[in-house]
Amino acid sequence: MSCSTSCLAVRPRRVARALGALAVASLLSACSGWGAKLPDVSFLGGLVTPYKIDIVQGNVVTREQAQALQVGMSRQQVRELLGSPLLASVFHADRWDYVFTFRRQGQATQQRKLTVYFKAEALERFEADELPSEEEFVSSLDVKRKSGKAPAMQATDEQLKTFQERNAAPAGTQAPVPDAPPASTSYPPLETPGSVR
Fold first, then answer.
1. What is the pLDDT of residues 25-58, one digit of tens each?
2. For 146, how many CA atoms within 13 A lie in the half-sphere containing its CB?
3. CA–CA separation, 70 vs 125, rounded Å?
4. Which one of 63, 99, 100, 189 has the lowest number of neighbouring Cβ atoms within 10 Å?
């Protein structure tokens, strides 16, 4: 075999590799120009959006809790009712701020604030944004819940009778007898009396 035939056999492999590398390079250079031609991902019409978790920060204070506040309450009583304040400043020792923020994808950010002012150790006054009731707050969190009448939590006599009929044992069978308790086994003590560790 001469050099010319062996060299010809090697050349098609080299040519194929070179053509493959050239094709990959041209595809990559073509892809790099797409970013300038497309405005951003929003051209897909919102079909592809990243998932963002709900972010809840601060203390939830409901209308019922704010209504329970009374002038003259001690700091401890306020803390037991509302929880620890989100902001308690050294420079404003007689002021506690309860701030709540809720962020959910596709909805406006909810932010509420309640400020409690003390004189000495007693509640003097408080200021609050419009606060939701506990039921309103929970329903705003549960977006999958369908509004409507809550199901009855107690069975009627008819429902109990139907249940007993469906689950009654057939006439020829007896109720299963529970197994006998296992025979008591005796185990040696973990330590022998008088042994030293």
1. 777 776 555 555 555 555 555 566 677 788 888 8
2. 4
3. 8
4. 189
| DSSP H or E stretch at residue 112 | strand 110-119
Match 């001690």 to its residue by tokens.
74
Name the β-bridge partners of 57: 101
Gap between the Cα atoms of 31 and 26, Å rounded: 9
- Nearest alpha-carbon partner for 106 in 53, 148, 160: 53
Is the entire prediction scored with pTM above 0.85? no
CA dist., res. 139 & res. 130, Å (int): 17
Say whether 118 sits in a helix, a strand or coil: strand
pLDDT for position 116: 92
Contact predicate 94/118, CB 8 Å: yes
Rounded to whole angstroms, how far apart are CA atoms 174 and 31? 76
